Amino acid sequence: MxxxxxxxxxxxxxxxxxxxxxxxxxxxxxxxxxxEFSADSVLFDTxxxxxxxxxxxxxxxxxxxxxxxxxxxxxxxxxxSPYTLIIDGVDGPVARQVRIRGxxxxxxxxxxKIKPGNSNAPFLVQDAISxxxxxxxxxxxxxxxxxxxxxxxxxxxxxxxxWAADKPHVIYGNIKVKDGCSLTIQKGARIYAHKDAALQIxxxxxxxxxxxxxxxxxxxxxxxxxxxxxxxxxxxxFLGKSKNNTIRYADIxxxxxxxxxxxxxxxxxxxxxxxxxxxxxxxxxxxxxxxTADVEVINSLITNCGQYAVAGLGGGTYSFKYCTxxxxxxxxxxxxxxxxxxxxxxxxxxxxKIAMVNSIIWAGKRGLRLTEEMHLQHxxxxxxxxxxxxxxxxxxxYKNVLNKTNLINQEPGFxxxxxxxxxxxxxxxxxxxxxxxxxxxxxPDIQKDIKDVVRDATAPDIGTYELP
Length: 468
Hints:
The protein has one helix and 44 strands. By secondary structure, the chain is mainly beta.
């Protein structure tokens, strides 16, 4: 009898313990108990061969009241897969008996490293993660696009190098073009820069894009999240005696300073850097930052720069024709003017010459009012030579000086700006009836806009874009 009483007591204690166990801890074995996932496929954007990729996260949900035990989580190709998994903090292609509490979730981290192939075009790399639970299997597909590329890391390029458009060019560190040498970048080429990377030109750079095959400079993080993130790489830097640089039909994005021009030759007869039909956007510091250099900009858009769209320090010669400086900066707390020039910088003093025609300097309202977007500082005792004609300018400081042939503080008439949309689909071309329509001065040597639209021969539009 004593044995029977002891046994019954043991049973009662066990039943009590089970009854006290939280419902979300009790494992359910119902075949209908499914897992749910944050996505049915884990997608990777183009991954450059040999560089690996960023990590993707898949969330596995158990929406059942009770816990489930996943018998096995594995890659379809296991150890032969280009993908690797980190499951519940453990790295490996397979995990077993993984418990997920009721109304809880599990993170699975996925990485991919693509082996070199023999194709210049993107190629597809696929696999799947299988989840075996209660004698059934659920799958999540893994999809990545691999891309062969040329890679450069802290290297001085050979003289008269040419970068073709057959594969992307990925740069790490400082890539240098030495004095007396040149780098030619052909139309359609794509250059992707790793964090802090820079293209440093002591010789000559020639970028030969066209309207239908533009040259692209961007950071090497190709996920959509990074499409509009400034400061991902350093930029293009013209150093020392660099001269005769031409950049045509190029998009330069998401750097610290797109164009850094540093030249002390003080030769106003030739421009050190000429930009034509370019788009400069999303710069952490400046679109163009010049120290005593001579720079010409034609048919180009500069937008979303954290401190200055264009800054010329220590003098220099500058020309702007048919440019749009639309420096709306919704993500920056910018207090500096978009267009900033001085004839003196530290110990350097040089005369300042600026010519601007048929261009726009505009940044909209911040704090419900128009801000000052121009600063022309003349403190070095040199000659200040400025010519502004047929522009739209956002300025209070110079409105009484520049109001003769320019439109002052009048909305240009852009299609989409950060003031009208919040989805980054900004469009700085013009609407019909805009103030900029037909208000420019014809320039016979510039007959097309940035998109090769023919400009009106007698009354062209102000800015980079001509209304068709």
